Amino acid sequence: MSTTDDYSQGVSIATLTDPPDAETLAKNIANATVARSNMRFASASARTAALAGVAAPVEGMESWLQDTNRKYIYDGSAWVEVPLKAKAHTTLTSSTGTTSGEILTGMSITMPTKAGTTYLLQASGLLRSTLVNDRIDLLIRRGTTTSGTQVGGGVLFTKVVSTGETASAFGVDTPGAGTTTWVVTINGVGSGTVDLTASAAFPAVFTVDEQ
Predict the structure, then answer these.
(1) Rounded CA gap, 90 and 106, in Å?
(2) What gap in Å lies between CA 84 and CA 71, rounded to an integer?
(3) Mean pLDDT of 79-105
């Protein structure tokens, strides 16, 4: 007569008095283990088809759908999505300069986004200008160009032109479902050449956190 595992999870274990049957033994253990793991399926319809051929889902089952990159838990009556907070960051490896107009800094993040979800955007780095007391706008935009929607920013008036000053830009955005790109830009309002670069004490970093 078979018995169950010591953790009361319903994994069927054969006893020494059971007739030898390696296939049944292996299948019982495999099926019980897989059903209690995070099962992966190509889509919701693939999950339904796979489970229909074995048994109905039971409360506590976990699954991951590869087409939407979402995790679900079966609550006894339906598959409920488990919120997963996304996070991404990038750093700047070289400086960039301009004498007029807004330019891209090279810091960009592209990631899947969800409907109705807010994302916190933060950019920081060392701002410099060849013009004393030049105004430099540090901006975050949704899109891939300087004409994208501004969703965050900060303003700095430089005082130490030779070494620059650290500055940060903040913003929140609710872009909706799909794939979203955000970029960091700088804009020197005066006539000086401005750049955003990194220092050992204050690296240039751009982060996006799902709230």
Answers:
(1) 10
(2) 8
(3) 80
Closest Cα partner for 185 from 158, 154, 162, 160? 154
Whether the pTM exceeds 0.85: the reply is no
For residue 39, give both structure tokens: 């099962």
Identify which of 175, 164, 161 has the alpha carbon closest to the alpha carbon of residue 211.
175
DSSP 47: H
- Taking the C-alpha atoms of residue 78 and residue 59, their distance in angstroms, rounded to an integer, is 9
Cα–Cα distance measured from residue 128 to residue 159, given in angstroms and rounded to the nearest whole number: 9
With 0-12 / 13-18 / 19 or more C-beta atoms within 10 angstroms meaning exposed / middle / buried, residue 76 is exposed
Q: What is the pLDDT of residues 27-41, one digit of tens each?
A: 666 665 655 577 788
Asked if 98 and 192 count as a contact pair (C-beta separation under 8 A), the reply is: no
Query: If DSSP codes are grouped into helix, strand and coil, which group holds residue 39?
Result: strand
